[in-house]
Amino acid sequence: MKGKRVLIINRGEIAIRVAKALNELGLVSVGVWTDNETEPPHLEYCQEWVHLKGNNNKETYLDIPKIMTLITDFKIDAVHPGYGFLSENKEFSETLAKKGIIFIGPNPVAVHKMGAKDISKQIAKEAGVPVVPGSIGEVPTVEEAIKIGNKFGYPILLKAVAGGGGKGMRPCYNDKDVRDNFAAVQREALSSFGYAALLVEKYILNPHHIEVQILADKKGNVYHLFERECSIQRRHQKILEEAPSPFIGTDEALRKEICETAVKCAKAVNYDSAGTVEFIMGEDKKFYFLEMNTRIQVEHPITEEITGIDLLANMIKVAFGEPLDFKSQDDIKIHGHAIELRICAEDPITMLPAPGRIVGFETTFPQGIRFDHCIYPKFTITPDFDPMLGKLIAKGFNRDVAIRKIKNALDGLIIDGIKTNIALHKVILNEKTFIKGEYSTSYITTIKPQEKVAAKEEIQAFMLKVAAIEMNQVGGLS
Predict the structure, then answer these.
(1) Are residues 216 and 311 in the same domain?
(2) Is residue 436 assigned to a domain?
(3) Among this protein's residues, is 295 annotated catalytic?
(4) Tally of domains in the chain
(5) 320 and 174: one domain?
(6) Which of 153, 260, 299, 427 has its CA 20 to 30 A from that of 386?
(7) Domain of 51?
(8) Could you read off the pLDDT of 157-167 as tens digits, one per residue?
(9) 196 belongs to a structural domain
(10) 468 within some domain
């Protein structure tokens, strides 16, 4: 394995994380730069750089023929896709396999079966795993989607078959909503994933989004690394995650059941890499299979923190046929509690992307804080990419300690020149529903922490205005 050349076909903080893991394992990390991002920060951590020509994602990170040419020209042995882009693209993994290039991810069959939400749902159902009521296969027309809505009852969720990251998803509360949104979700799915097909599912109100981390080798061994709670979301995209789930809490029977169910899903497709099985859990603690992400997740650090297992390193080792760092499920234990905040370049009130140029960046963190990021002064955030800048992670002996540490860490994170969601996170971390661990996926829409951010900003603006008036009065008197 040592000395093999690995192309990282991604950018930002995940490219940095992958490069660090490759370097640690004695592999050659090869990063890419593009014409619309000529000085990406991840190159600092890569041993070699190559130019991926193009001015947008379609011409670069999503262009399979162009990437395959780079692989040939630079004698690449393996590819790590990170997350997003081509990480769950069956055509890409199959093309690599045909060329004898190692894909650092699951085998192409698993990518195909579990990467497509319609097929994965059918597999889960056949494996005896509870699934959300709705269509099993693709729903090609508006009228068919409306029939499903009337059969199972509204609200329903229009959902991209090839989706991920909260994109290509929209709830509908009546027939008119379906007609208004069906084509729009198809367009978003096609633009984001190159595939417009949709599923229709019952939209379960106020659920908890619980996911289980899987790690499997090429010898048929599949292990779980326990669960994560990912219920604080905006537009179906996570902004805060923690492990283990405060909703499951001390219910070890439920924890065992959902984790073993995830293993069952992975075994059904002979899974052989890092992956995540996602569930929605109702207030009655009944859970349903949602999807499987056949890649590393954004929130993987909190699982690493509570288990002590390096997911990226083990994912890479598996791809090269190497053994995992542990021998059995009994070797994997939960130690403490971890919380991750996604730090994004976005307006903390509207939660919409806010591109711009960073002019100042400082950190004064308490002991033991982890910050996976791609930030540096003068770094320009453009609309071309996801607005996430980094992930702030704290681990504590228990949840109360983790909350205390992450609050202190957030106070020590300074990013000037752009809008960020730091103020939003500060409100959430001090809000009673979050502190009690009683939140669901409706948290943002029902608790509305963004309104408290707005109120604080109005007070701050008023105080600045008063201070300016007082300064002018003092100046006038002199």
Answers:
(1) yes
(2) yes
(3) yes
(4) 3
(5) no
(6) 427
(7) 5-104
(8) 999 988 766 78
(9) yes
(10) no
Which residue in 11, 295, 370, 399 is the catalytic one?
A: 295
Instruction: Give one word for 128, left, alpha or beta, with left for phi > 0 and alpha for psi -120 to 50.
Output: left
139 and 195 part of one domain: yes
Q: Are residues 366 and 231 in the same domain?
A: yes
Radius of gyration for the alpha carbons in the chain, expressed in angstroms and rounded = 23
Do residue 341 and residue 219 come from a single domain? yes
How far apart are alpha carbons 258 and 278 in whole angstroms? 10
Residue 191 has pLDDT above 90, yes or no: no
Examine the domain organization and report whether 311 and 420 are in the same domain.
yes
| Confidence band of 278 (pLDDT split at 50, 70, 90) | very high
Q: Is the pLDDT of residue 461 over 80?
A: no
Average pLDDT over residues 428-451: 97
- Say if 168 falls within a structural domain: yes
* 3-state SS, one letter per residue, for the chain: CCCCEEEECCCHHHHHHHHHHHHHCCCEEEEEEECCECCCHHHHHCCEEEECCCCCHHHCCCCHHHHHHHHHHCCCCEEECCCCCCCCCHHHHHHHHHCCCEECCCCHHHHHHHHCHHHHHHHHHHCCCCECCECCCCCCCHHHHHHHHHHHCCCEEEEEEEEECCEEEEEECCHHHHHHHHHHHHHHHHHHHCCCCEEEEECCCCCEEEEEEEEECCCCCEEEEEEEEEEEEECCEEEEEEECCCCCCCCHHHHHHHHHHHHHHHHCCCCCCEEEEEEEECCCCCEEEEEEECCCCCCHHHHHHHHCCCHHHHHHHHHCCCCCCCCCHHHCCCCCEEEEEEEECECCCCCCECCEECCEEEECCCCCCEEEECCCCCCEECCCCCCEEEEEEEEECCHHHHHHHHHHHHHCEEEECCCCCHHHHHHHHCCHHHHHCCCCCCHHHHCCHHHHHHHHHHHHHHHHHHHHHHHHHHHHHC
- Regarding whether 149 and 164 lie in a shared domain, the answer is yes
Residues 165 and 30 in one domain: no
- The pLDDT tens digits for 348-403 are 999 999 999 999 999 999 999 999 999 999 999 999 899 999 999 999 999 999 99
Do 247 and 258 contact (CB within 8 A), yes or no?
no
Question: Cβ contacts of residue 258 below 8 Å, gap of 6+?
Answer: 210, 212, 227, 248, 279, 281, 287
Cβ contacts of residue 356 below 8 Å, gap of 6+? 345, 380, 381, 417, 418, 419
